Request: fold
Amino acid sequence: MVAGTPLLLATTGEVICERSGILNLGVEGVMAMGAVVAFIVTMTTGHPWLGVLAALAAGMMFSIIHAFASITLQANQVVSGLAMTMLGLGLSGMLGKPYVGKPLSIKMEDWVIPYLSDIPYLGEILFSQGPFFYIAIFLALGSWFLLERTRLGIQIRSTGENPKATETQGINVFKLKYLSVIIGGGFSALAGAHLSISYSKSWIEGMTAGRGWIAIALTIFALWNPARAIWAAFLFGGIFVVQYLLQPLGISPNFLAMLPYFATLLILLLMSLKDPKKLNAPAMLGESYKSGER
Amino acid sequence: MKKIQRLEMRAISKSFHGIHANKDINLCVESGEILGLLGENGAGKTTLMNILYGLYQPDSGQIKINGKTIQINNPVESINQGIGMVHQHFMLVQNHSVIENIALGYKDTPFFFPKIKIRDKVEQFSKQFDFHIDVTKKIWQLSAGEQQRVEIIKALLNGADLLILDEPTSVLTPQEIKELIAILREMKAKGHMIIFISHKLDEIMDICDRVLVLQKGQIVGDADTKDTDKKSLARMMVGRDIVFNTTKEKLTKGKKNLSVENITVIGDKGLLAVKNISFELFKNEIFGIAGVSGNGQRELAEAITGIRPISSGKVKMNGKDITNKSPRYIYDRGVSHVPEERIRFGIAPGLFLYDNAILKQHHLKKFSKRYFLKYNQVKNHTKTIINEFKVSAHSINSQIRNLSGGNIQKLILGREISEQPQLLVASHPTYGLDVGATEFLRKHLLNLRRQGSAVLLFSEDLEEIFELCDRVAVIFDGEFMAVLNSDDKRFSDIGLMMAGSKRIDPMERKE
Amino acid sequence: MIKIKTTDRYNITTLRSFMTIILSLLAALVVISIIFLIAGANPVYAISEIFLGSFGSYYGIKETITKAIPLILIGSGLTLAFRAKFWNIGAEGQMLMGAIFATWTGLTFGEALPSYLIIPLIFLAGFIGGGLWGIIPAILKIKYSINEVISTLMLNYICAEFLTMLIVGPWKGKTRFGFPGTNNLPDSAILGLIPGSRIHYATLILAIICAIVLSVIIYKTRFGYEARVVGENPEAGKYAGINFLKTSLILMAISGGLAGLAGVGEVAGIHHYLGYPASISSGYGFTAIIVAWLAKLNPLYAVVSGIFFAGILVGGDAIQISLGLPAATVEIVNGTLLIFLIMGDYFLNNKITLRFSYGTKDSLKIGIK
Reply:
């Protein structure tokens, strides 16, 4: 469960971003930035929630770079995203250096929901978790609601499908794309924050361990639907955990470590076999859009 | 009380890259009036309307509503003023439902649960004008006529008094055109004003009260439709007399060239696009396939040229089976193709002119030796094409995307014809070309015919079909409604055939 | 009021391209300096240290060339892949796979064969290994529409784990400083070095030859032409009768194979044994992406670009020691450079004019020189 949380947060963010038509491959970098900022701020101020907010802000600001490059400058989104990953991993490594190995003594208390958590077995799993878990689910469901049931959602989705049509209705396509990228970045940063202050309570370079990339794969797996992302993320979280469960059985730990990545490929393979047309990708995903004047 | 009683555009001018798209245009339209804007492709009609709709800003001139000068800086302001526009290429999101598309355009869409809340309003509007649309359907599931109606609803919902329609009938069947005309007359009776852009004389004469003729960005004619006739309008539009019937030389049909036997082809959405079509082509002949775009033409062309798989049936070229062979194999058997969407399929935009000039021919011995390309040959070949087909370009070393659409088309045509194909499949080859280029292209098609090739011509332009073709087939919903000689009198019903209402059994053929 | 107008630029001259790159790099330099300041280092000192460290001494130059070898190899391979818009970010894994194949070949046959036989063999093995690992994502993309960014990336991780599995398991040899690894390669399989340096000249020559060959392939052969068409407009490629599967397989085999060669170079030339993945590939696969981009996807330019980035790596090592900056600094430098290069492209393709509201005075600003 816990392992899936950062995946859910990052995936939800990427879904919003991609639905507006922008591919953000920098999730790994944004996550790392979120993690390091959250850790540092929490360490220094002693307030984990400040750390969370700081991470959110940091992620959003960091994403502006990618947004600017992809939207205003219409640069190649793949390369821009990769640059963000490098920058993010690098910057976070640099900022975090003095903090490596220092354990975080401040804990984020689990939120125990009364009554519901007393349900045997299920209650323990679902209703007494760290706060990030609830935040993640809330944000995922909220995003779903936003995309499907509000006017803004229609606008965002239309931007990803047909920006020209959307613009002719007088809607500012650029603003929407920026908004989506920034929100997406913020969520990914939250995922990082979870990793550093809730999951492992420490900072080390490379702690994101490819989760950002898996989140990108999960957006496809979840068919760009944040609600689906919930069980997709936790399915994968489970695979991460299975590693540790199977270890005592004597199976090579490296082989187990391969599992999440293998699983990603496997699932994408199965999806494509089932439905070769991938009808759900936003039609203009990854394409640069030039406004108006022909 | 209508918002707009009278709209005026005064001395509007607009240039792009130094070319005048609109020059000193004066226009006015009043409540309850249908004004036609007539002109060829590129005359400046769409530009003018885009200015009115707020997508472009005029370089000079003013817009006045009810006598007051106003500024329209973007579509939102235009909508607020009571102007609505239905574009030639619908501005709809294919994957979304009707309701979602309307919600996108409607300015008073509520933030929460928009779909549910505006549904009633939409259905109310639909009833008013007798539209019957299932609002939950996705756009791609609707017919062109229905999609257009969604666009109209969008405009009306926002309170449009002036409705601008840009080439609205280009995608409609004759039946749908009749329905549209009825709707427009209804709106006119209610006091709306309509600007109807078209290049089709019949429609303008039929529907509009007045007509403005544009040529090369300027107004060259202004008349009430009851006071003028087709010929005068046509002359104003082109600047010279159009001959409506050219005579092409009579040629005896040569040997059988292409043979299509009972083929079925599946389209993009998984449905059958071509249903059991059979026909034969002969040398020295141009065979035309007429029909509204979207009835299987593209799939048929792609199937014959090897881009799309054929589910059943056979295609043979000179007796050899080319069913489902690779595009290259088919090309090597003498079949050339000028594709429908030439920019999308025909060129590699970022590559240079000479790279594109051999796009389909690069594997031929004369351009490549083993693994290497003989660039000298390639460049010479390119120069030949440019000269022969009068492609205007700075140099063959410039990127092809810098050329105008017409020139790109000429290059593609030159490329495809250069190898003396036995069969040329031409999909809407003159679409979007100016008069000069169109004439040029048609001349070349006739040349090919004279030289012994066969031409399979797909076109929506009936004038073109009858001018060029020896035999004509009408396609509707993936089937041939009729296959007749082009001078067959039964083609007076071609409108019905194109709409699927009339079918002529091959056995009935007068031969 | 300032109005910004952008228009397409039609004629992009080589000079303009070059100037834009220089400007982008300078701009990046400014930002990097700021970052250095924040990190508490004197930017002028830091940057000069980087250049001195890599080009200012004999030792520096030798190290730079050593590091440039894999970058040139992988970078030129990437120019081919990227031109076909095949985003190969799996060069790390391809490198490792090449190293694995080469090590196996070296350990198994090295004892029995003389140098002039075994060395070509290990390079061949490396090429095959990397090529195979590169073909997999190509198949996945064509047959199963799996996005190559994800597949190449996942394969990186998988290969890394696979390698670790080998060196702690069946291939375990002597341990060094507590880190696992295979046994040393037999002497015959070890690449000769230019005396006094760590430059394994065989691979260096190979790298330059590959860059030249690749350049010929891209611009002069039918295959290169087809790859470029596919990258520009896949629809046109289909129409032109280009076989996507064949083209993608070949280009990924080449790109992966070249990365594999780089892997061989690292193992047989520098380490002489197969150890932890990170020590073998050292992020070369990712850095090579920027190398290719800076080279504007031209394999010949990749040689220069490779040397440039190798310099940054070496210089980065230098300031780590002298200024105590973390290893991640290099990533920051790379990332910033890449971002500014991308942004520079925009100014190259578009003319920017600023117009001031009073009067019609047009003032030309950035991008027009």
Remarks:
- Chain B touches chain A through 28 residues (CB under 8 Å).
- The CA atoms of residues 110 and 433 of chain B lie 44 Å apart.
